[in-house]
Specification:
With 495 residues, the protein is an alpha+beta fold. Helices cover 49% and strands 7% of the residues. It has a 4-stranded antiparallel sheet with strand order 2-1-3-4. It starts with a helix and ends with a strand.
């Protein structure tokens, strides 16, 4: 076998059709969720009359040098057109329509999603400052080069996708080992299920597990993030087994909480290491040989097939780009001061990832209240605003929201960890005083049914999951202890 034949045989990963099928449709589905989440929340948070209006932010945007199609002009109408285009293209990719055409059709479709969503993220300010935004952008750019049904899955892109999963998992593991003592002494899960940003319907049950099981959870997490990722690069079936372990641990996290599309991204991307034969061994009705449909006696690409050779060149060029950009996150993985969720270039390509290097021991919630009374005394009738995902009533079961992302609720979790004196939070309180309809739609319940309150305030409270004995007595899932007033009553006259 000559060198060219060896290269083309290696390049065409014919045992990875299932991997390509899942990667393309899974990443497109996550883009659909991201655009839907933005469409429903962005105008109220960041639109022309939002809490942090994009037009004001763009006045100093030239200094930031971040690519965005909104740099020339922003309007809520234009933003909605962007989201509509993103929803339409991602839906077509989920259905597999662009994949039926030439290789460059899904390539352009994914690059369009990448460009549109990057334009949103780069003007999203604190409401888009989450690691899974970068992860989705990098995933979208990478899987763009997986091609269509007319070409075989390219091995270089599959390997680079595995490299993305490695950075995601190993980076998170290293952050934990270098972080709080609770990860090293295996006590982190004593607290995490209770204090995580947005608990799910099963989070209390996870929290009430015996402490020996929490220690097993922490030890299993270290194994899954610090050991298993290396085996993703191994030949089959070892790579598929490692991917299965990643998927199972991520499903455990899906059941125990709400982390937007972070866990689902890891699940989808882990399929890059899964072979068709491994899938067949688990799901027998899927054919064992799903390799790209071409006669085995015919060389690929044929010597005169310039379209196919152009595809090889494009894939190799993208692979070289991603490989060169890998130097910075690789160095970061082994740096003493490891960066978490950091981008090393303006295009959000080949980033550093990691989460929960330390675990909060107590859950403090910021409770927002309003009153119709003229004097905002302590004994006035204060009514609480209810959020969709943030814990509120003591007897309410938390909902499962992920992979949908509730941006306001997430930032409410950060307030007691940082400071309540955030610009966006004061803007939020003023919107409540004005009974702004767009802002109120971000909430689950407006206690004033659209009427303007005279005063609003913010106070803190300690939230703890009830024990089984406490629940049998009170039927409350949360034990709530009021702490203090953190923002004094604000009225419209203060504006």
């Amino acid at each position: 076998m000559d060198a060219l034949s060896w290269f083309t045989d290696w390049f065409a990963a014919e045992d990875s059709e299932v991997a390509r099928w899942v990667l393309q449709r899974g990443v497109a589905a996550l883009f659909f969720v991201a655009f839907l989440s933005s469409l429903n929340q962005f105008p109220a948070l960041l639109g022309e009359r939002g809490l942090l209006p994009v037009p004001e932010y763009l006045e100093g945007f030239h200094r930031l040098r971040r690519p965005s199609l909104f740099r020339l002009r922003y309007s809520d109408r234009l933003f909605r057109l962007f989201c509509a285009a993103g929803l339409a293209v991602s839906a077509l990719l989920v259905l597999g329509v662009p994949q039926l055409g030439p290789w460059w059709v899904p390539l352009l479709a994914f690059l369009l999603l990448w460009g549109l969503y990057m334009s949103i993220v780069n003007v999203g300010q604190t409401f888009y400052g989450f690691g899974w935004e970068m992860l989705l952008l990098e995933a979208g750019f990478t899987v763009a080069f997986l091609g269509s049904d007319q070409v075989p899955p390219p091995a270089p892109i599959l390997i680079l996708t595995v490299w993305l999963v490695f950075r995601l998992e190993f980076g998170a593991g290293m952050i934990k080992i270098r972080g709080g003592d609770e990860w090293r002494d295996l006590t982190a899960l004593f607290y995490h299920h209770e204090t995580q940003p947005m608990p799910g319907p099963l989070s209390r049950q996870f929290h009430l597990l015996p402490k020996w099981m929490h220690r097993c959870e922490a030890a299993g997490n270290h194994f899954a993030q610090l050991v298993v990722p290396f085996f993703l690069f191994f030949p089959q079936p070892i790579g598929s087994v490692a991917a299965a372990l990643v998927i199972l641990t991520q499903l455990w996290l899906v059941l125990s909480g709400n982390f937007a599309w972070l866990n689902w991204s890891a699940i989808v991307l882990a399929f890059a290491a899964v072979g068709d034969r491994a899938v067949h061994s688990v799901v027998p009705f899927i054919p064992e040989d799903l390799g790209w449909d071409r006669p085995r006696t015919t060389a690929w690409p044929a010597s005169g097939d310039w379209v196919a050779w152009a595809w090889v060149v494009v894939v190799l060029a993208a692979s070289v780009l991603l490989l060169v950009l890998s130097w910075w996150p690789l160095r970061n993985l082994f740096a003493k001061r490891q960066l978490m969720n950091a981008a090393f270039n303006r295009w959000a390509l080949v980033n550093a990832y990691g989460a929960f290097g330390s675990v909060t021991k107590n859950r403090v919630e910021i409770v927002v209240e309003g009153t119709l009374e003229t004097v905002p005394a302590e004994d006035a009738e204060w009514r609480e605003y209810r959020f969709k995902g943030k814990p509120g009533e003591p007897d309410r079961v938390p909902r499962q929201w992920a992979p949908y992302h509730l941006r306001l609720d997430w930032l409410m979790w950060f307030l007691p960890l940082r400071t309540v004196h955030e610009e966006w939070f004061y803007a939020f309180l003023m919107k409540l005083l004005a009974a702004d309809p767009a802002t109120l739609r971000l909430l689950r319940e407006d206690p004033f049914d659209g009427e303007r309150p005279r005063w609003v305030r913010a106070r803190s409270a300690l939230y703890e999951f009830s024990t089984r004995e406490e629940f049998r007595e009170t039927h409350h899932r949360w034990v709530i202890t009021p702490l203090r007033e953190v923002i004094r009553p604000i009225g419209l006259r203060d504006e």
